[in-house]
Amino acid sequence: MRIPKKPVAFCLSIFSPDFPAPCSSRILRFSSGFPAKIKPIYAAGFNHSSSHYSKDPSAGTMLGDKASQSYLMVNSNGGEEPHVWSSREGGCKIDIGKQIFCNRSLNMRNIVAVGFDMDYTLAQYKPETFESLAYEGTIRKLVYDLGYPQELLAWTFDPKYMVRGLVLDKKRGNILKMDRHKYVKVAYHGFRELSKEDKVGTYGNKLIRDSFDEPDYALIDTLFSLAEAYLFAQLVDFKDKNPGKVPEGADYARMYKDVRAAVDLCHRDGTLKQMVAKDPKRYINEDNFIVPMFKMLRDSGRSTFLVTNSLWDYTNIVMNFLCASRTLDGSLICNFDWLQYFDVVITGSAKPGFFHEDNRANIFEVEPESGMLLNTDNGTPMPQVGNTSPNVLSKGLNKGCRVFQVF
Fold this sequence. Notes:
This is 5'-nucleotidase. This protein is an alpha+beta fold.
């Protein structure tokens, strides 16, 4: 079941401490081709797409302290041309965990707005600490709220065991690894690998279309799911060896449902986020390339927005950690400066339902300093009770960014 795989940070891979990126709104452009008279040298994983930029000497300020000069290369006629950023001359070695792998190009010329999620996108949580915290919280909910034996409190979590892309067979207590044709390559019952005969006898040896879907199966497609998948495997083994110690009537499907309920309880009562808020550095990876990326997008003239399921108070703490400046001793300076990198921030969005056309959730505007919620008409300011005109928040604090929370 161990399938080694490094996580990929999709949106943070185009920067390097030694490779400044130009960001003037007049000169930044991305396209699917290379400049004329330049022979492209592809970086690993980019053989199907590319991006480049050009530099206008009169373009004004460039991004970052080191970005006062552009990287140029000599073409066949002796003139100077801008580097392709993925070339050996213009870039530098990027760790494979930070590279982008794609099979089609995207022309950014027509992209007017770029949006971000926060948890596990901008905020990359440390599995050895954050997932362990989630795992331990889930165990406690199972024991103290859902009637599971206290033996579970001694269990531990291996953050390297599970990977995304697995499928849980809720009814049978199996964990499956399939190929793109939905052929089951490997199957485990708990932590015991099924024989080829058992695997073929249960799942067949040819394509079964429209199978392996809810409600009988669960796809492990997010990093949040890794701890609950590991716990489910532990419970399957525990039930097989100690059938009388699990709650009465708890089959494999019921145990998976209980795990999901326990995970939801941890998130609803704030157990996890309170611990992260106390010490963000312990649970979240620092990334010095996030702010330069935001600046590049903003200086290119594009709008940016953040849509997260986390509520405003937690969002502010995490984004402060990711974007805030630090004092000489390394301590954080907590403020709202990170809002300058966005036009709109939407918290408590309850994705993916937030994007559905029939979504009728109430949207309140957030006053960042106090966290107070103001009524809106689907985002449009409206008078509060006792006032005759809408309460328009000051633009000085948030640099024009508007913050909303969904209920």
